[in-house]
Amino acid sequence: MPDRTTVHLVRHGEVDNPDKVLYGRMPDFHLSPLGREMAQLTAASLRERDITHLVSSPLERAQETMAPLAEALGQGVTLDERVIEAGNDFEGLTVGSNPKQLLHPRFWPKLLNPAKPSWGEPYAEIVTRMTAAVEDARAAALGHEAVIVSHQLPVWTARRHYEGMRLWHDPRRRECTLASVTSLTFVGDELLFLSYAEPAASLLPQAAKVGGA
C-alpha cells in the first residue's frame, strides 16, 4: 500500500543513575554502558526496515539511544520537544527508592488526583503533544517508516490513547521496557494495528539487578 506508514516509538535505554534520582527532564543524565548495548540491539532490530525519518526527544539519553540507528542508516535526526519526558513535580527527588519522602505534608496537595495526575503533566496534554508528533512523523515518512525515540510515560500514554484505553493507570503494569519498540501502522491517517517488541530483552535482567531505568 503506497500510503501504509509505520511509526516506531522507542523508549530509551538504561540510564546511568546510581543515586536513583527521578531525573525527569533534568540535563546530563546519559545512558549507562548497559544502556548503550540496549541501543545497539534496538538499532540492529530496525536497521533493515524501510525507515526514512528519525525523530528524538532532545534529552541526552534519547539522543544516545537513537545514535546507533542514525549511524547505521546514515540519516540525520530531528529533535522534537513534543516527545520529551513528562513533566513531574517530584523531579530531582529519590521517591522511587525512598517513597516515605511523600509523607511530608508539603507533598500532599500533589497526591490528590492520580487520574490527572496531580503531581505532574496531565495525561491528556501528553497525548496531545505525542499524537501531534506521531502525525508529523507519519506525514514525513508517508509510505515508509519513521522512528521516534521518547520516554516510557509518553510512549505508554500514547499507546493507551491509540488503543482506546483510559489514560490513568498503574505504572507497575506498563508494557514499555527499556529500549522497547511500540509500532503504530497506519493506512492513510487511520491506525491499522499496533505491535510491541523488546529487542533488548536479554539485557533487562541486568538492568533490574541495579534498578536501571
What this model shows, in words?
- With 213 residues, the protein is an alpha/beta fold.
- Helix content is 30%, strand content 17%.
- The protein has helices at residues 33-46, 60-73, 123-140, 152-162, 204-209, and strands spanning 4-11, 51-56, 78-79, 145-150, 181-187, 190-197.
- It has a six-stranded mixed beta sheet with strand order 3-2-4-1-5-6, sandwiched between helices.
- The protein is globular and about 55 Å long.
- The chain starts with a strand and ends with a helix.
Order of helices and strands: EHEHEHEHEEH
Strand order of the largest sheet: 3-2-4-1-5-6
In CATH, the architecture of the domain at 4-94 and 144-156 and 178-209 is 3-Layer(aba) Sandwich
- Radius of gyration based on Cα positions: 17 Å
Largest sheet, if any?
6 strands, mixed
Question: Which secondary-structure class do the elements indicate?
Answer: alpha/beta
Helix content: 25-40%
CATH superfamily of the domain at 4-94 and 144-156 and 178-209: Phosphoglycerate mutase-like
Discrete helix count? 5
- Mean pLDDT across the residues is 93
Total number of strands: 6
N/C terminus separation: 38 Å
Instruction: State the name of the first-level CATH class of the domain at 4-94 and 144-156 and 178-209.
Output: Alpha Beta
